[in-house]
Amino acid sequence: KFPVTTLRLPIVNSERDHYDRIYGYFLRLQDGGPLVVPEGDGLPIRHVYGGDVVTALLKVVESTAGRGEAYNIGQDETFSLQQFLELLAQLMGRPLTIARAPWEKLEREGLLPNCSPFSGRWMSSLDNTRSKAAFGITYTLMSEYLRKLVHHYASSPARPIDGYRQRAQELRFAQSH
């Protein structure tokens, strides 16, 4: 009987992502070396921008609709890893060079997940139709929020992140394979 609304979220991308997933890709593109990713297409990428999560939460709190229901929150479009990396490189004005290797080999070398955090074995891809209909939510296009993130990263002081510490090992791996 408790009035609850459940929101299901995929990966949330924002300026405050404490996992630094997109920032890790940003740093790799910025250094000019190849991005090391597993072979194959990978799982579909259908994330959400952090600002859209805040908007969704506010709409749910301010509304009487949706009590006792569950809603998926997520961007409208679905990208492959290749499309995502191409878009990020384009927004950064950087060339995209990819070094592909078998998943198992990257795992054995200890490169995954850091070398390509969006290459996990699991990725949620949520249908947002119900949340849009119930609350009138409009989700930010990936190209729009990536542009914001690129600007944020480019205009902020560089900072070390855990996921980039093994970059030298990645570059040696890419060169030898």
What does this structure look like?
The protein has about 180 residues and is mostly helical. Helix content is about 40%, strand content about 10%. The protein has a two-stranded parallel ribbon. The longest helix is centred in the last third of the chain and has 14 residues. About 30% of the residues are buried. The mean pLDDT is about 95.
Task: Tell me the layout of helices and strands.
Layout: E1 6-8, E2 12-13, H1 21-31, E3 35-38, E4 48-49, H2 50-62, E5 70-72, H3 81-92, E6 98-101, H4 103-108, H5 129-135, H6 142-155, H7 167-176
Parallel strand pairs: 1-5, 2-4, 3-6
Helix pairs in contact: 1-3, 3-6
In brief:
The chain is mainly α.
Give descriptors for this structure.
elongated, 177 residues, mainly alpha
Order of helices and strands: EEHEEHEHEHHHH
**Total beta-strand segments:** 6
Count helical runs.
7
Instruction: Quote the average pLDDT.
Output: 95
Query: What profile does the largest beta sheet have?
Result: 2 strands, parallel
Which residues form runs of ≥5 with pLDDT under 50? none
- Beta-strand portion reads 5-15%
Distance, first to last CA = 59 Å
Helix content: 40-55%
